[in-house]
Amino acid sequence: MNKLNVAVLGATGAVGREMLKVLQERNFPVNRLKALASARSAGTELPFAGGTVVVEVSIEASFVGVDIVLGAASNALAKRLAPAIVKAGAVFVDNSSAFRMVDDVPLVVPEINPEDVKRHKGIIANPNCSTIITLTAVAALNRLSPIQSMVASTYQAVSGAGANGLKELEQQVLDYAAGKALESGVFPWQIAFNVIPQIGDDTGNGYTSEEMKMQNEGRKIMHLPALNVTCTCVRVPVLRSHSISVTLRTERKISVDEARAAIAAAPGCRLVDDLASKSYPMPLDTSDQDIVFVGRIRDDLTSENGLSLWCCGDQIRKGAATNAIQIAELLLNQ
To answer: If exposure means fewest CB atoms within 10 Å of the residue's CB, which of 4, 9, 299, 321 is most exposed?
Structure first.
């Protein structure tokens, strides 16, 4: 197998560091690795493949001779550097939201729409973390009967705000135990022992930008242009792994048993669904791994063709780093 030259853009952040870890775990054939970040991180040594890689400043010239760029940087940086990446002949697998809704940029979850990778023109977008986890859970049902609508509530871990989000929750818990005043910076309100029903900016229709991603990205990934989704995104005091409650309606009735069998057989999923024995997906069980756990599957009591379920998945891994590297593996196989 030919080895590739790989660059990780935003290598010192939570997702970037996880990308380095997942590249090793999945034995991705790396010939030469570049770890790219801002000037303040230049010279930092990051562990990789039994040794270390020294962080370099990300500039336009960084991508000469690179085959694949895994992006874990901001929208602004992704937009600024994308032309240089494409010009260098590399494929940019971008985790930001900068290109997700651009018509000629594939938006890919490998378990759902791997064939879309073939349409790339140098850029492939990695979907939003909650979108990846939710759609991985429901894709098998969509294959049984097209999904017409979804009502979703996301319970998103502080890892979704990056490494500083993790630090803020941990520090607030320590300060609470010590009787100290709790300080907030990453989140607009105290997150320890609290939930915050806003992630993203106000879009003007009562929904946040994070909430609209579930519908807009879901339509593109599952090729369902008429899909309607109403979503509420909530930040919760959990370190890793997002949880999502979903009620969906399909064209034809899918029985609970049929749904369980389909999800149990679906790639990237694990059925964890036995209410009597208190067996269901939870963040603690789904952190630091790549499978989406699905359970609490039951009939929707408000719609004849409706089902409700609960799913959990690691935001940093399957919701970001691992999905990007799975996309890179699709490119490798082509």
So the answer is: 299
